[in-house]
Amino acid sequence: MRKNDGVIILIFAAILLFSLIMILNQGTKITGYATQINTTSNVTISTYFAIDMSTNLSDGIQFGTISTLPTVNQNATHNYDGVNTTAQGSTLNGTNGTSMWMNVSTDSNTGVDFCVKADVLDTAGGDAIGLGNESYHNNTVTNVSLPALTSEVSMTTTYTKAGYNISQGSSNYYRFWLDVPAGTVSGTYNNTVSFKGVSTESACGT
Amino acid sequence: MIKKTINYRAILIFLLIILLISFISAGIGIVSNAASLTVKENEESCITSIGAYNPFTTDSGVTISVSDELKGILIQKSVDTRLIPAGTGHDNAIPLKFCFKVPEVYHRDYAIAGRFIDKLDCTEGQKVYSGEVILESATTGDASSGMGSATKMAVSTPLNVRVACNPYGWNYSLVYTLAIFLSVSVIALILLRKYRKPKEERIKEKMKKLKQELKKK
């Protein structure tokens, strides 16, 4: 062993010890002499809601066979075959409401906003009717006038609010209409209309 | 006669119940006990506080998904589809598990070559992935009798995945690691050189050196 080997070993042992201490202390912060005691406080806020569709809505929105072009505001077949929810007294058993609705379960703790979107009505062969031609309106009650054609809203490919703060045990009623422009190629046109329930005030999302 | 009337009434009530049930389709419910999850960069975190239930009278098949905003960081979800039995109240909701892993999203300063010895000061705002968990009915009305629209139903609840940022000063771990490696190597080399020969040989060498030194004097 050379004379200075002992010194070298001593120096590198010191470096080794220092590095080990520093690497173990990495990320440790000195915070002074402050002391603190923590106690936890817990609260869980739970949101739940459930929805379902009337049978006539879950069976699809049907417009039947159209043989005259152009056709404006063709009624969906179930627009007027439901119960009149505003009927009173002698008209208690009234009809002419829509039989297409979304229902909010009583096993919910929040109101529900409904959102609606659709894709393009087209045929298997690729012919299409522009989405702006299919329209709807919604209301929390239904009778011969409501939901109203005069308030119709065109379908869009992104979710749009179509029913606000529908409370537990209540329903949101829908009517649908279809315009078929002149020159539309004959065929069976189909699409999908999507309904989404979100807790009230929440965004519809994608 | 009275007995017959009662029977007719019972049948009528039974038919009415069947009629009412037939007007109710399968439904979906969603329970959310937490709308946010905090994750650390490069670490996996899971949330199980969202559940599905079905208080209606018909079993319901649902597809489970997250919105596009969360798809990039979702690494696992418990199931894709699930049958939610009829009569499942929110108290007995079926829990759904979603796991997320977020890559390094916060800007770090580097001292060497843009890769080594880093520092994270967390001055930029907290990164949040905002999206939603979506339960969608597996069945679709098909408007089979001609022109029209099939219908689909879904429920969703918002979910925010927040990325925790824990600031730290310059991280010299790499330097210390290199120093440890170097120190161990040097010490090992010296000791190896010293002890690689047998003891007798080492003593002889030592004696030889001493003689040479004495000669010089």
Description:
The complex is a heterodimer of chains A (206) and B (217). Chain A is mainly beta. Chain A has a domain at 69-199. In chain A, 12% of the residues lie in helices and 32% in strands. Chain A has two helices and 14 strands, in the order H-E-H-E-E-E-E-E-E-E-E-E-E-E-E-E. In chain A, the strands form four sheets. In chain A, strands 1, 3, 6, 10, 11 and 13 form a six-stranded antiparallel sheet that branches. A three-stranded antiparallel sheet of chain A has the order 12-7-14, with no helix packed on it. Chain A has a two-stranded antiparallel sheet with strand order 4-5. In chain A, a hairpin with a 5-residue loop joins strand 8 and strand 9 (128-129). Chain A is elongated. Chain B is of the alpha+beta class. Chain B has two domains: 26-163, Immunoglobulin-like; 173-216. Chain B contains four helices and eleven strands, in the order αββββαβββββββαα. In chain B, the strands form three sheets. Chain B has a five-stranded mixed sheet with strand order 2-11-10-4-6. In chain B, strands 1-3-7-5 form a four-stranded antiparallel sheet, with no helix packed on it. Chain B has a two-stranded antiparallel sheet with strand order 8-9. In chain B, strand 8 (109-112) and strand 9 form a beta hairpin. The longest helix of chain B has 23 residues, at 173-195. Chains A and B meet through helix 1, strand 1, helix 2, strand 2 and strand 14 of A and strand 1, strand 10, strand 11 and helix 3 of B. Strand 14 (190-199) of chain A pairs parallel with strand 11 of chain B.
Summarize the structure.
Chain A has 206 residues and is mostly beta strands.
Name the features:
heterodimer, A: 206 residues, mainly beta, 6-stranded antiparallel β-sheet, 3-stranded antiparallel β-sheet, 2 helices, 14 strands, 12% helix, 32% strand, elongated, B: 217 residues, alpha+beta, Immunoglobulin-like, 2 domains, 5-stranded mixed β-sheet, 4-stranded antiparallel β-sheet, 4 helices, 11 strands
